[in-house]
Amino acid sequence: MLVEEPLADHFRDFAAVVERDGGTTYPAICRAVAEDDDLLSLLAGAPLPQRRPLLLLAAVHFLLLSGVEHPLAAFYDTVVVVRGGTTVQSAKGDVAAAFSDFCHAYRAEVERLIATRSTQTNEVGRCSALLPGLGHVASQYEWREPLSLLDLGTSAGLNLLFDDYLYTYRASEGGAVRTAGPQDAAVTIECTVRDDLTHLPQLRLPLMAERVGLDLAPVDPLSDDESLWLLACQWPDNPPRFERLRAALANVRAVAHPPRLERGDMLKDLPRVAASMTGDGPLVVFHSWVAAYLDEEEQHSLSEQVAGLDVHRPVHHLYCESPFETPGLPTPRSPVPRKGPDLVTALVHVGPGGHGAARLADTHPHGYWIRWWAQS
Asked: Is residue 274 within 8 Å of residue 260, measured between CB atoms?
């Protein structure tokens, strides 16, 4: 597990990940932080599983979004947008030096946030994998059975409202398009389909019953402070992703009956929360980029617990996780041989009773692309 690596290596690794996705602001900052023991020490007050680059980065982003004045704000496109800027222009100068100066000027405020907050990345883009994954489950009941959905590590529960969003799946070549969801949706999700677009399962919204989220520290989407923290966990040079999250937060505030969010541990409290969900129809337990915060033994325990829920109703385990970071989950090998570790994000379905694990697709961590393996 990566949490045991030196903290400086975390920042270098995170810089490479963000850079591969086209980010420039955080890579420059992270590489500088990796060489600065004083900046690294800011994370000393965080619990070990949270001692990761994003917590420090989010703390600084949060203060800027809250209105703190500092030259660093000009380097953050998201802050420029929130403050009313009509065009986003990159600031001139050394962003890493500005970040360091900000941390020294507001060290007490940064340390307070690090000690009291946890990373929350309610990435609604991952619904581009959740939708066809749920469709795969619904098709096993000929689309006639309403599905109940339990989202682990739910954050603000935004993915539980997946059927409020408009999806556009585009072929990587040829320009073919498939859509799903309400055409007038305020939240739009675009996803590139690698290989043949026809490999995707039927794209339709399944019938839904109960929706519940479980999280150690659920985000109240009706709270301005908590919503702002969620936004602060976004990258500052990707305004479209940032604006999509703002739209999803506005959407959950507008619905008549928002999903029920439960506070608790995904291992200790999973049986209790699952038992609280009514009905005897199919239950889908879903999680995305959450199991990486568990060690291998805990991941194995999670898989066993979900399988053990299959007593009074069929329970399906659907997850979108990195195989490299979740060796304790029953993720089948990629259909395409890979050299080195399996670093993509895999969408996996495990049937009732823990049987029939299938690797449905590989996806981008934020849902930008999908490569569907399963035939349906």
From this structure: no
Domain count, the chain: 2
CB 274 within 8 A of CB 309: yes
Q: Is residue 161 part of a domain?
A: yes
Examine the domain organization and report whether 93 and 142 are in the same domain. Answer: no
User: Among residues 122, 158, 129, 24, which one has the least CA distance to residue 364?
Assistant: 129
Q: Tens digits of per-residue pLDDT, 214-224?
A: 999 899 999 99
- Round to whole Å and give the CA distance between 25 and 15: 9
The string of DSSP letters for 331-363 reads PPPPSS--SS---SEEEEEEEGGGEEEEEEEEE
Q: What is the pLDDT of residues 92-108, one digit of tens each?
A: 789 999 999 999 999 99
Triad 57, 60, 64: Cα angle to 5°: 135
d(CA 102, CA 112): 15
Question: Which of 100, 116, 132 delimits the end of a domain?
Answer: 116
The H helix count followed by the E strand count for the chain is 12, 11
**252 within domain boundaries:** no
Tell me, what amino acid is at 278?
A: T
Direct distance between the N- and C-terminal alpha carbons of the chain, in angstroms, rounded to an integer = 35
Residues 173 and 273 in one domain: yes
Which domain range does residue 357 map to?
124-221+258-372
Q: Which two tokens stand for residue 27?
A: 């890579």
Which stretch of DSSP H or E encloses residue 19?
helix 7-20
**Does the model's pTM come out above 0.85?**
yes
Give exposure, 135-168, as e/b (b: 16+ Cβ within 10 Å).
bbbbeeeeeebebbbbbbbbbbbbbbbbbbbbbe
